[in-house]
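Amino Acid Chain and Its Fold in Token Form
===========================================
What this section holds: a protein sequence and its matching fold, both as plain text.
Structure line: whole-number tokens from a learned vocabulary of local backbone shapes, matched to residues.
Purpose: to set a sequence beside its fold so the mapping can be learned.
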Amino acid sequence: MEIQQSPLYISYIKRLGWQVEEVDGSHLFLKRFPFYGGFAKLQRCTKLPKIDHLLPILAKYRIKKLVVEPDACVTQDAFSRWLKDALPHVRLVHSPYLPTKTIRVDLIESEEEIFTRFSEAKRRAVRRAQKNNLRIQESTNIQNLIKIKNKSSGFLGFITTTGIDKLWPIFSPDHAAILLAYSNSVIARSEATWQSLKIASLTPFARNDNRIIGGILLLFCDSIAYYWIAGATREGKKLFAPTLLVWEALKLAKKCGAKWFDFVGVWDERNPKQFHEWLGFTKFKEGFGGKSLYYPTATLHR
């Protein structure tokens, strides 16, 4: 199960004001917007619903537009056949709302083997960040991460963190973690949080007032750790904080029992004109030795 179909994510979607209906075992998110009308999202479903089961729900909510983004276990051929059957009855949105490609790192192997799969540039960046006295601290303060993300995203950066303050209390503490990069601090987790995850406790972190230069929000679902949002200041980037944060996040995810680390989204060469601005962080994510995972997409069949 991908995170978008998980009970916690459904609680989050409801908190944002969406209605949720189940159709053939998958959850459909529905909402009405001023001047836009009704809109529905069926995301990361492992089985495409029957059209005659879907249409009554769309009619009930007066839905005008629908986006369907299946899980990777649904083949492109199966999705194409479903689209052909659906198009006479449903107004489909072809532009994706979720990335059509991601990268996943296998966490089954040892930390040493995971690190060995990094590119030489990434291994060197981790060592340089450590020499720069960067350390990573786990935090429970979502506002600190939001501030860093907003700052790193520039003008209108607040849009990238919309709803995160509502997501955090739903997933934390057992299914989420925040890692923050400081210029001079140490990694630690509060004893209560370690115990909740049923892993060996460490000494609780002592207060440190150094400024934050980067951060990551991780979400955990069904043995997958998701690199949900991340950001760093200019200083943090110069000191290689983003690379060290990913390395510490990989180790933390492995300790928490995750089998895969999902980078959530990268540029998809199947649609080269779409999300072209993602090329930079795609190159960054590719350096950690993961495997590409492709989702079936409607944009290939306009």
The chain has a mean pLDDT of 90. Residues 125 and 240 are 6 Å apart (CA to CA).
